[in-house]
Design brief:
The complex is a heterodimer of chains A (151) and B (405).
Chain A: H1 4-7, H2 10-17, E1 30-36, E2 41-49, E3 55-63, H3 66-79, H4 87-99, H5 108-111, H6 127-141, E4 148-149
Parallel strand pairs in A: 1-4
Antiparallel strand pairs in A: 1-2, 2-3
Helix pairs in contact in A: 2-3, 3-6, 4-6
Chain B: H1 4-9, E1 17-18, E2 21-22, E3 24-25, H2 36-49, H3 59-78, E4 87-90, H4 93-108, E5 114-118, H5 127-136, E6 139-143, H6 153-159, E7 164-170, H7 182-191, E8 195-199, H8 211-214, E9 218-222, E10 233-237, H9 239-244, E11 255-258, E12 263-265, H10 279-295, H11 297-316, E13 321-323, E14 333-338, H12 343-351, E15 355-356, E16 358-360, H13 365-371, E17 376-380, H14 387-403
Parallel strand pairs in B: 3-15, 5-6, 5-7, 7-8, 8-9
Antiparallel strand pairs in B: 1-2, 4-10, 9-10, 11-12, 13-14, 14-17, 16-17
Classes of the chains: A alpha+beta (151), B alpha/beta (405).
The complex binds pyridoxal-5'-phosphate.
Pyridoxal-5'-phosphate binds at residues 92-94, 122, 124, 170, 174, 199, 201-202, 222, 224, 363 of chain B.
């Protein structure tokens, strides 16, 4: 059985307490709203993609549980400075990790520090908390006007 | 004599362990657990008496009909309805409110009319009226609440005018525990000629309700919050009003004669019960009410007051806990937020300690907006809960605080 500490690892607690890339960007060319109707979590992401297709800067604002705040913090850390073309692969990797069978070991090499969130697999009602920011980022990158949902 | 051990043993589900810890089920406002007698009544129906009602001439159908109508009689007695004709089975409180909004509202509400509700309503007593207002051009008015989560009576009185055609008020709030003074609300509403719908989804398991003494026009509730099964509830309405209302849904059972030119509708209550009903649900509901009656509201009320007082004292002494909903008149609900731990994380953490609570907006988003919180954690009590379970909750809360310390 998983222990609570598998979900609330120190890294997650720390990112929740002092989230990285929190606040509104001064300059951004993509943004989107995300909302999880189940628990009322709200998220807004901003990103600035430059002419070379690099994510020059990225940030988020909002209110949510520790899992959703830590996940957004870790996500923005991971994406910052990377080519926007890599997003889809990272998105899929993350989605796979949080929905994979429990006996599958997360691919830490590909996922990097995002792997600390693999514990949510054990908590089905919390998977949406972890993935809300990714869905929101996806709609920001695709610039769709609708608020991202976790459904 | 109130025998807690006996009562707990009536509920087979309570004896289990969750993650190796004894289950402390404190989510009774969402749904209550079911006693063995209710489970048995439902099984017995399927094992021995299953048939469609009001249709067959054979023995099983007659037995099924007798049990189904027997349940209606028990419910009529419990709420002191004038007759069984005033008891209409629905899927639950939600469907009952929609029935009234659609049938009574459709026939009686027009542009310029007002519908008055309160800020502490469950979504099910907001959205059907919003839809009705959109269809008719009527206006929805909302009576405000104060910081304790109580209805502000003076403001309610000011909003109640000759334009008000219907007042919809929750008897006991699921998000706050507040009990509203419905007797005086009903009297005042009637004085301006408005009809009143009381949402009794929470209250009916905790307080005695006498629809005649209250003179209420519509009272709705759900069986599953009263130790009965899901998927069944009632609308109890005044016969004179129900008779004047058009049908809600059309189909079998609700008609007397059908020709392609015109159909003639059945008598009450069948006019509002189109299609094969939830027969086993009604039977289980009747049994659940008998179970409540066997304990009695005096004993239930006394015990639940003790539990709430015990939990409230603990909450007041708990560092960093803010109660949401501190009405002078309240029951069975401890809604709160903890500094530094989001309700959703709390829910997960206490679950691992075997403690089941609800975290979220409790289908009352306007209440969350009023208190400026995205969500609350809510422990809600029932007659079978114990002080030890409340202790387990507070130990688990401490553990959550430690994780985030
Ligand atoms: C106060 C209140 N009203 C209405 C409802 C709706 O009941 P149901 O979902 O059983 O129709 C609930 C249930 O959560 C409630 O607590």
């Amino acid at each position: 059985m998983f222990d609570l500490r598998d979900l609330y690892q120190q890294v997650i607690v720390d990112h929740n307490k002092s989230p990285r890339n929190f606040g509104k960007l001064e300059f951004f060319n993509h943004e989107a709203d995300g909302y999880n109707p189940l628990c009322g979590d709200r998220l807004h992401v901003y990103l600035n993609v430059n002419d070379e297709g690099l994510i020059e800067d990225v940030s988020f604002e909002g209110e949510g549980c520790a899992i959703s705040v830590a996940s957004a913090s870790l996500m923005t850390d991971t994406l910052k400075g990377r080519p926007v073309s890599e997003f889809q692969q990272k998105f899929e990797g993350f989605q796979h990790m949080v929905t994979a069978d429990l006996d599958e070991t997360p691919d830490e090499e590909a996922l990097g520090k995002l792997a600390v969130l693999s514990g949510v697999r054990e908590f089905p009602s919390r998977i949406k908390c972890a993935s809300l920011c990714w869905h929101t980022m996806k709609s920001a990158i695709e610039n769709s006007k609708e608020a991202a949902k976790t459904e | 004599m109130f025998d807690i051990e006996q009562i707990r043993s009536d509920f087979p589900i309570l004896a289990q362990q969750i993650y190796g810890k004894p289950l402390a089920y404190l989510d009774n406002a969402a749904t209550t657990q079911k006693p063995q007698c209710v489970i048995d009544a439902i099984s017995h129906y399927y094992e021995c008496d299953n048939a469609n009602v009001h249709r067959g001439v054979h023995a099983l159908s007659e037995r099924a009909t007798a049990e189904y109508e027997g349940a209606r009689k028990i419910i009529a007695g419990f709420f002191n309805a004038r007759s069984e004709r005033e008891v209409i089975f629905t899927r639950g409180a939600t469907e009952a409110i929609n029935l009234v909004a659609s049938s009574w509202g459709g026939a009686n509400i027009k542009a310029g009319d007002e519908i008055l509700i309160t800020h502490m309503e469950h979504h099910s007593n907001i959205v059907p009226w919003q839809l009705l207002c959109e269809r008719t051009g009527a206006t929805l008015k909302v009576a405000p609440i104060n910081e304790a989560g109580e209805l502000i009576i003076e403001a309610f009185d000011d909003l109640l005018t000759e334009r008000t055609k219907l007042v919809g008020v929750v008897h006991m709030s699921n998000a706050l525990g507040t009990i509203n003074p419905i007797a005086s609300i009903i009297a005042k509403a009637h004085a301006v000629g408005a009809k009143v719908l009381i949402d009794g989804a929470q209250a009916a398991a905790h307080l005695a309700v006498d629809v005649q003494a209250l003179d209420v026009d519509f009272y709705v509730t759900s069986a599953h919050k009263m130790y009965g099964p899901t998927g069944i509830g009632v609308l109890i309405g005044k016969q004179s009003i129900l008779e004047s209302m058009p049908p809600y849904q059309g189909g079998g059972d609700m008609i007397r004669i059908v020709t392609f030119e015109k159909s003639e509708y059945s008598e009450l209550p069948y006019k509002f019960e189109a299609g094969t009903p939830h027969i086993s649900g009604a039977i289980g509901f009747g049994k659940a009410i008998e179970y409540i009656q066997s304990i009695g509201f005096d004993a239930i009320g006394k015990r639940e007051k003790e539990l709430l007082a015990y939990a409230t004292t603990k909450a007041e002494g708990f560092d960093g806990l803010r109660q949401i909903g501190t009405a002078a008149e309240k029951a069975c609900v401890l809604s709160f937020v903890l500094k530094s731990v989001h309700p959703h994380d709390l829910g997960t953490i206490v679950d691992r300690e075997g403690v089941a609570i609800r975290a979220g907006h409790h289908c009352a988003m306007p209440v969350m907006q009023f208190f400026k919180v995205p969500a609350t954690a809510r422990a809600s009590f029932s007659v079978y809960n114990t002080e030890a379970e409340i202790d387990a909750l507070f130990i688990a809360l401490k553990k959550a605080q430690d994780i985030f310390a």
